[in-house]
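queue> pop job 88
queue> type: inverse folding (structure -> sequence)
queue> payload:
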């Protein structure tokens, strides 16, 4: 059922892209890197960012997301609403568990426009529910998280972006600080490339540092696909991952 629903959304997005593709600048994503972008979804547009990911945590544990989806709705030029859903299969040794992750609710708001040394800056806040998901993936408490999102335009083909924030795990009062640093390159008008360093710094455990990179291909102003992969740099992190993405937006009113 989930596969047919995803196919329907893709077809709907592709059709609507042709109708509205010339009204706005190209679609801006919060994927495939881990760095959330400071751009706001245009007013009255729904934007859906789907990622299919295979993550190898170690030789005995794998997780497949099919897909993880970020749903965004633009309220005005400075504010968007956000919803995150995910259907996953987790395999540990010979035991597999499949289900829906708890739903996350949130928002993004623009704070500053880029001016000189001041980056384009926005703020994201999310709360992940403890119970709105399959029983196997529920947590004891809700999980709040937040990030400040910054981006500099270095040239007309190169951008530098970074996030700083924190997140809670839903099982206790401990939290982890988050950092990301990514450089984006426009190879052509349709092809983009990025490299990224990111990580998590828990208050109780050792830091978890990772590296990734990937490509994006712009089908039209409202429809984009991506491929990415990454690996862990420390002993207490995932071994590697590979991901494919399909993202699009469409207008809800004339």
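queue> result:
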């Amino acid at each position: 059922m989930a596969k047919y629903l995803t196919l329907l959304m893709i077809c709907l997005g592709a059709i609507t892209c042709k109708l509205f593709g010339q009204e706005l600048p190209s679609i801006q994503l919060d994927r495939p890197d881990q760095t959330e972008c400071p751009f706001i979804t245009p007013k009255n547009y729904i934007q859906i960012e789907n990622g299919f990911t295979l993550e190898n945590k170690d030789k005995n544990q794998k997780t497949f997301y099919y897909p993880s989806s970020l749903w965004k709705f633009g309220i005005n030029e400075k504010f968007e609403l956000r919803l995150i859903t995910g259907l996953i299969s987790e395999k540990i040794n010979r035991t597999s568990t499949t289900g829906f992750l708890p739903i996350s609710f949130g928002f993004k708001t623009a704070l500053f426009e880029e001016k000189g040394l001041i980056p384009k800056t926005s703020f994201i806040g999310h709360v992940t529910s403890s119970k709105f998901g399959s029983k196997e993936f529920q947590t004891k408490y809700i999980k709040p998280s937040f990030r400040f999102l910054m981006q500099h335009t270095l040239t007309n083909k190169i951008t530098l972006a970074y996030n700083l924030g924190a997140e809670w795990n839903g099982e206790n009062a401990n939290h982890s600080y988050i950092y990301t640093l990514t450089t984006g390159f426009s190879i052509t008008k349709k092809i983009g490339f990025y490299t990224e360093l990111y990580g998590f710094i828990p208050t109780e455990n050792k830091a978890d540092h990772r590296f990734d990179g990937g490509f994006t291909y712009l089908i039209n102003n409202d429809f984009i696909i991506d491929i990415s992969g990454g690996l862990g740099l420390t002993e207490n992190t995932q071994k590697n991952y590979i991901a494919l993405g399909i993202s699009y937006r469409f207008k809800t009113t004339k």
